[in-house]
Amino acid sequence: MSPLPQPAAPTLVAVAHGSRDPRALPAVSALLDQVRALRPGLPVRLGHIELNEPLLAGTLDALPDGTDAVLVPLLFGHGFHVKHDLPRAAASAGPRLRVRVAAPLGAHPLLVEALYDRLTEAGWRPCARAGVVLAAAGSRDPGAAAVTRRLAALLSARLDGVPVTAGYASAASPTVPEAVRELTARGRTRVAVASCFTAPGLFATRSAAASPGIAAAPIGPHPALARLVLHRYEQAVARAATPAYASV
């Protein structure tokens, strides 16, 4: 008896914020090429919340009827876009599509490795008076700030205890310049800025300009970030496959 055909894997729709910076789209596209290389045959698409084509609504409209899709936010915390925009997009696609939303990237060890590598590439070297500002976009949602602080703590541990302070480009405090001044006031005379952004853009550029020393590049197409995108996708697929009565 022939085995039953396996159902097609859900389409991974990576959701980027979007930016007017011309470097942003190539960086995100290169990241998704790495995702495809890790999972050959997996359908991978891109949609933007704003500012860049393809917009998320257009990406979902282009999927065939009956497609099962997972929206994977290329965002770090549970801010407004993750809590409101993405669920709204998923709901608007139904019943033509089956769409679920994966967790944001979050404070994950894979993300820490990517941040560490970008700092090292920028010239980071440990010293007694070193300090790091973890620059993030910022959000009025307290949960998003908690993720950034957790990520700063994990990065500090990866840097063997070097102080890492969160700084924000908008909507939250301290700002990146304020975080730099805070570390300097604590005697940290060699302060670097780590860039917690998936691609170049206005916030990443402003944050880098606030650094009195080295400034790491945005994470972009880093292998660890590609693995984290797949991890969030696989988590969402596994949740959908878990019966409601199962113990999780």
Number of helices: 8
Order of helices and strands: EHEHEHEHEHEHEHH
How is the biggest beta sheet arranged? 4 strands, parallel
Topology, number of strands: 7
The gross shape turns out to be elongated
> What is the residue-averaged pLDDT?
92
Low-confidence stretches: 243-248
Distance separating the two termini: 34 Å
Helical proportion, percent range: 40-55%
Topology:
Blueprint: E1 11-16, H1 24-38, E2 44-48, H2 56-62, E3 68-73, H3 80-93, E4 98-101, H4 109-121, E5 130-136, H5 142-158, E6 164-168, H6 176-185, E7 190-195, H7 202-209, H8 223-241
Parallel strand pairs: 1-2, 1-3, 3-4, 5-6, 5-7
Describe what you observe in this structure.
Helix 1 packs across helix 8, helix 4 packs across helix 5 and helix 4 runs antiparallel to helix 8. This protein has a 4-stranded parallel sheet with strand order 2-1-3-4, with helices on both faces. Mean pLDDT is 92; it is low at 243-248. The longest helix has 19 residues, at 223-241. With 248 residues, the chain is an alpha/beta fold. The protein starts with 10 loop residues before the first strand and ends in a 7-residue tail after the last helix. The chain has 8 helices and 7 strands.
Concise synopsis of the structure shown:
With 248 residues, the chain is α/β, with parallel strands linked by helices. The protein is built from eight helices and seven strands; from the N terminus they run βαβαβαβαβαβαβαα. The protein is elongated, with a radius of gyration of 19 Å.
